[in-house]
């Protein structure tokens, strides 16, 4: 994988973590156990430290970076959706950052909070635990329901399982030229978008 040392600091990746070969890690990056780092994620620890705590995930095309002397942290079981940008901020334990959200310097996303897709969380903002924040700029909208928080936990568990699947079965291959008869599908009963969960209410 593209993993780079700078000024004598090199990334640290726990053996129980999965970092995709097409992710880029530079310098002072710490990836804990059971973490998942997706393709094209950029974790650039050339100024401040980048930390992924146990069981967290950062998905495709995400960026983590920070100013000198800062830590950019995803706490245990944190979940960062595709395309998000985290800069000098802290994502609390079991929190979720929606796709293409931007979390700015010194912002704190509280435990089990959710930041909506495409939200812009201003520098220094604090989102309380178990709250939904959304918008540009982001505002705290309301408390999360037990159903929403349970859905988040299930989604993160899927990524923790993906870490195990990727460590054991992911490999480069040549593509087929046509689809084989009876091609199987991945089956994950009960794993659905939140909008579908709400339809069943």
Characterise this structure.
With 201 residues, the chain is α/β, with parallel strands linked by helices. The protein has one domain (3-143): Hexapeptide repeat proteins (UDP N-Acetylglucosamine Acyltransferase, domain 1, 3 Solenoid), CATH 2.160.10.10. 15% of the residues lie in helices and 32% in strands. The protein contains 2 helices and 20 strands. It has helices spanning 146-169, 194-199; strands at 3-4, 12-13, 18-19, 24-31, 36-37, 42-52, 57-58, 63-65, 71-74, 79-80, 85-87, 90-91, 96-97, 102-103, 108-109, 114-115, 120-121, 126-127, 131-134, 139-143. The strands form 2 sheets. Strands 1, 2, 4, 6, 8, 9, 11, 12, 14, 15, 17 and 18 form a 12-stranded parallel sheet that branches. It has an 8-stranded mixed sheet with strand order 3-5-7-10-13-16-19-20. Strand 19 and strand 20 (139-143) form a beta hairpin. The radius of gyration is 17 Å and the shape is globular. The protein starts with a strand and ends with a helix. The mean pLDDT is 96. Pfam families: Hexapep. InterPro entries: Hexapep, PaaY, Transf_Hexapept/Carb_Anhydrase, Trimer_LpxA-like_sf. This is Phenylacetic acid degradation protein PaaY.
- Enumerate how many helices there are, as a single number: 2
**What is the share of helical residues?**
10-25%
* Beta strands, count: 20
Extract low-pLDDT stretches: none
Instruction: Please outline the major beta sheet.
Output: 12 strands, parallel
CATH class: Mainly Beta
**Helix-strand makeup class:** alpha/beta
Terminal CA distance reads 44 Å
Tell me what portion of residues adopts beta-strand conformation. Answer: 25-35%
Query: Nearest-angstrom radius of gyration?
Result: 17 Å
H and E order: EEEEEEEEEEEEEEEEEEEEHH
Mean pLDDT, all residues: 96
**What's the architecture, going by CATH?**
3 Solenoid
Count the domains: 1
Which superfamily, in CATH terms, is the homologous superfamily?
Hexapeptide repeat proteins
Q: What kind of oligomer do you see?
A: single chain
CATH topology: UDP N-Acetylglucosamine Acyltransferase, domain 1
What is the molecular shape?
Answer: globular
Protein name: Phenylacetic acid degradation protein PaaY
Pfam families: Hexapep
InterPro entries: Hexapep (IPR001451), PaaY (IPR011974), Transf_Hexapept/Carb_Anhydrase (IPR050484), Trimer_LpxA-like_sf (IPR011004)
Organism: Pseudothauera lacus
